[in-house]
TrEMBL record:
Ranges where the Fibronectin type III-like domain occurs: 685-754
Keyword hit for Hydrolase: yes
Pfam families: Fn3-like, Glyco_hydro_3, Glyco_hydro_3_C
Name of protein: Beta-glucosidase
Species, as recorded: Dictyobacter formicarum
SUPFAM superfamilies, per database record: (Trans)glycosidases, Beta-D-glucan exohydrolase, C-terminal domain
Keyword tags: Hydrolase
Taxonomic superkingdom: Bacteria
């Protein structure tokens, strides 16, 4: 029996295995590892054809795109399909290099039968990293069960323009909140060892959410300081805390540099400054976009060369530039072979880290056991309840036990489709099953699955708000329902029936909504940007008509978009925000409305009064909170309608006994305070710590979030919190672009939101200027006693 090659020896160090395998590879085999195929490209007349796979992958392949998010397969069949693809490359290619299957997982694994959790913005609204980690652990278990080892999540974009359709996929507007939630998600997804985890992808590097006009893919104009301090910081935080496996580029150009082809962004900033050493994977078709969108390349080969030189290692979702066009660049001497080798090494290293050479297959028969379990649904329900944000309450909530008749109104009240975000299954798959013309609609060619593989509107059991309330309220409470109107359109014919029902009710729950998705008609989602942030259709008119009845209105906004709700606030007795909530949306909402769960969601974004205010966010620099000379607009205050971090409770919390121990620019600052529950019901408070550098060498933010703690308090209970702030957390890029902490006066403030500060104190840090690197920032730690 011959000796096994070194690269197949699991006892050998990974770097030695990579070097040994690379040395045996031809150029064709190397380039194959940088490429990708849609999973559905191997399906012939409704069945998997291994001969087609052999023909398409003679040298193997780096990745396979989306089995779950392109087909209608159940977990067992999905796992079997993955095994069959793996078998082809392992047994019918010379070197037998296993494939990686990548999938989407922003609000749960995008796969039939997988748990549908709240969309990314909803997870951020919990301000609960521990819960988000649990959600990601469920996603990991389900992906592992079907052999999907690479997730294109989390979204770490800093979203400060609500016109942009993808805000719902993000964790909000603040880099510290995003970095904290993103860290928890990656830790849950990757686990302690990638050999038993799923590789996460931080996306989209960099500045993607700040496009001109809020238009998807639009150019981004950012200075180097803001680019690093704000937009790179969530990526830097997740890199520091987790060693995230992969990064995905942004579609946009930054100051004229398309990210997919920019060494300044993907190498100098990402690798040299922030220390990332893993593979960069292309956002779909972004290599081709260097040619046909940004127009910085004339041919596919030139686009491939620019991208690879920039540090982009893998082309997704299919190989168009990194195959023969890239090979021609190498053979013509326009691209050094060593550049290809560097990228291939990164890909191979990831495959060894994932343990794919040792365990390329999964037990297909066991896969269904980790889908739709009671514990997973309970976690989804908890996530919805904790993500529900109570914006206003005139004592109408929780619903009184004495109520006898409830009117449930609105297009969002009983439509499971409206519980879906644009990256939820099956809403995301409308791209395929609802539009055979998907190439024309999006420019993205998706091979059509057929037969048993064909996708469709396959929902897990989804609980709508109406169903949730029916299950939650006493059987003696009469519940009347009327839709009132659709999400879109100008049909008001349902108003009369809704008004009659509300007039006879003790209280009305009005669920207005958006519709998230990719293919229009929708109101939010990727490539679905907006100039008007009012509630869509005639829903605001419906609320006005119902308000005239004088019945207390509980208005729930179920939408992935941040809407302008100034008129709605005045008409509602209570107002709640619920981002796309997934399968347990109705139950989680009902838990909050009935008081079973005390609301504790907090806004991860600022809510503008009008679209004309944009941008309005917590991180404005000195002077950015007012308009000179009169502090406001001629027609509006400059302040948001609801500030970042806002969210009410059914109880009240008291802050006291603030103490700050500080010394100089080399020592950590210790901030201690007490928070007590001054009300009559148990509740969770999200204590937020902000800082203001009073005088600095560049304009600094008035409210810089340094950290937060979510704490549970029984009535009358008081807990002591200690925030430990390392001086590197106060660092910024000075006029010479050195990353420094300067001595001086700093105001530390704590409160329930950026606008609801309860205690504050200014201290002086002495000493000299201390220089750091951004990748060395030490995060704020919190101790709760």
């Amino acid at each position: 029996m011959g000796q096994i090659p070194l690269y197949r020896d699991p006892r050998a160090p990974i770097e030695q295995r990579v070097e040994d395998l690379l040395a045996q590879m031809t150029l064709d085999e190397k380039l194959a590892q940088l490429g990708c195929y849609w999973s559905t490209a191997f399906i012939s007349t409704g069945t998997f054809n291994p001969e087609v796979a052999v023909e398409k992958m003679p040298y193997g392949i780096g990745q396979i795109t989306r089995i779950g998010a392109a087909t209608g397969l159940h977990p067992q069949e999905s796992a079997a399909f993955m095994n069959a693809l793996q078998k082809v490359v392992l047994e019918r290619t010379r070197l037998g290099i296993p494939i990686i299957v990548h999938e989407e997982s922003t609000g749960g694994f995008c796969h039939r039968d997988a748990t549908v959790f709240p969309q990314g913005l909803g997870l951020a609204a919990t301000w609960n990293p521990d819960l988000v980690k649990q959600v990601a652990e469920v996603i990991r278990s389900q992906m592992l069960a079907v052999g999907a080892r690479h997730a294109l999540a989390p979204v770490l974009d800093v979203a400060r323009d609500p016109r942009w359709g993808r805000v719902e996929e993000t964790y909000g507007e603040d880099p510290v909140l995003i970095g904290t939630i993103g860290t928890a998600y990656v830790q849950g997804l990757q686990g302690d060892d990638l050999a038993h985890g799923v590789a996460a992808t931080g996306k989209h590097f960099l500045g993607y959410a700040l496009s001109e006009g809020g238009r998807n893919w639009g150019p981004v104009q950012l200075g180097p300081r803001e680019l690093r301090e704000v937009y790179a910081e969530p990526f830097a935080a997740v890199l520091r805390n987790t060693g995230i496996a992969t990064i995905m580029n942004s579609y946009a150009s930054v100051d004229g540099l398309p990210c997919a082809g920019s060494p300044a962004i993907l190498t100098d900033l990402l690798r040299t400054e922030l220390g990332f050493d893993g593979p960069v994977v292309a956002d779909y078709a972004s290599v081709e976009m260097l040619m046909n969108y940004h127009r910085v390349a004339a041919t596919p080969g030139e686009a491939a060369r620019l991208a690879l030189l920039a540090g982009l290692d893998m082309e997704l979702p299919t190989t168009n530039c990194y195959g023969d066009p890239l090979k021609a660049e190498v053979e013509a001497g326009r691209l050094a072979p060593e550049v290809v080798d560097t990228a291939v090494c990164r890909v191979l290293r990831l495959k060894f880290q994932l343990g794919l050479f040792e365990q390329p297959y999964v037990d297909a028969g066991a896969a269904p056991a980790v889908f739709q379990t009671p514990d997973q649904r309970a976690l989804a329900r908890q996530a919805v309840a904790q993500s529900t944000i109570l914006l206003k309450n005139n004592s109408v909530l929780p619903l009184a036990p004495t109520i006898k008749r409830v009117a449930v109104i609105g297009p969002g009240a009983d439509d499971q489709r409206l519980l879906q975000g644009d990256y939820h299954y099956p809403a995301h798959l409308e791209l395929i099953y609802a539009a055979p013309q998907n190439t024309e609609a999006t420019g993205l060619t998706v091979p059509q699955a057929s037969g048993d593989y064909a996708p469709g509107p396959f929902y897990t059991p989804h609980v709508t708000p109406l169903a949730g309330l029916r299950a939650a309220l006493d059987k003696d409470v009469e519940i009347d329902y009327a839709k009132g109107c659709e999400v879109l359109g100008d049909d008001r014919s349902g108003f009369e029936a809704a008004v009659q029902i509300v007039s006879a009710a003790d209280v009305a729950v009005v669920v207005v909504a958006g519709r998230s998705g990719l293919l229009r008609p929708v109101t939010s989602g990727e490539a679905n940007d907006a100039t008007n942030l009012d509630l869509p259709g005639v829903q605001q008119e419906l609320i006005a008509a119902l308000a005239a009845c004088k019945t207390p209105l509980v208005v729930v906004v179920l939408s992935g978009r941040i809407h302008t709700l100034a008129s709605v606030v005045n008409q509602a007795s209570a107002l709640l925000q619920l981002f796309p909530a997934g399968e347990e949306g109705g139950n989680g909402l009902a838990d909050v409305l009935t008081g079973k769960v005390n609301p504790s969601g907090r806004l991860p974004v600022s809510m503008p009064r009008s679209v004309g205010q944009i941008p309005v966010h917590v991180g404005y620099r000195a002077g950015g909170n007012r308009a000179m000379f009169f502090d406001d607009y001629i027609d509006s205050p400059t302040t948001p309608l609801f500030s970042f971090g806002h969210g009410l409770s059914y109880t009240t919390f008291a802050y006291s006994d603030l103490q700050i121990q500080s010394k100089d620019t080399t020592a950590s600052i210790e901030i201690t305070l007490k928070v007590g529950n001054a009300g009559e019901v148990a509740g969770d408070e999200v204590v937020q710590l902000y800082c203001c550098d009073r005088v600095a060498s560049v304009a600094r933010p008035d409210h810089l979030l340094l950290g937060f703690a979510r704490i549970s308090l029984e009535p009358g209970q008081t807990r002591q919190l200690t925030f430990k702030v390392h001086p590197s957390r106060l660092a910024f890029y000075d006029p010479s672009m050195r990353f420094v902490t300067e001595p001086g006066d700093f105001t530390f403030s704590l409160g329930a939101s950026a606008a609801d500060i309860r205690v504050a104190e200014t201290v002086t840090l002495t000493g000299s200027i201390v220089e750091y690197c951004q990748r060395e920032i030490v995060g704020t730690t919190i101790t709760v006693n």
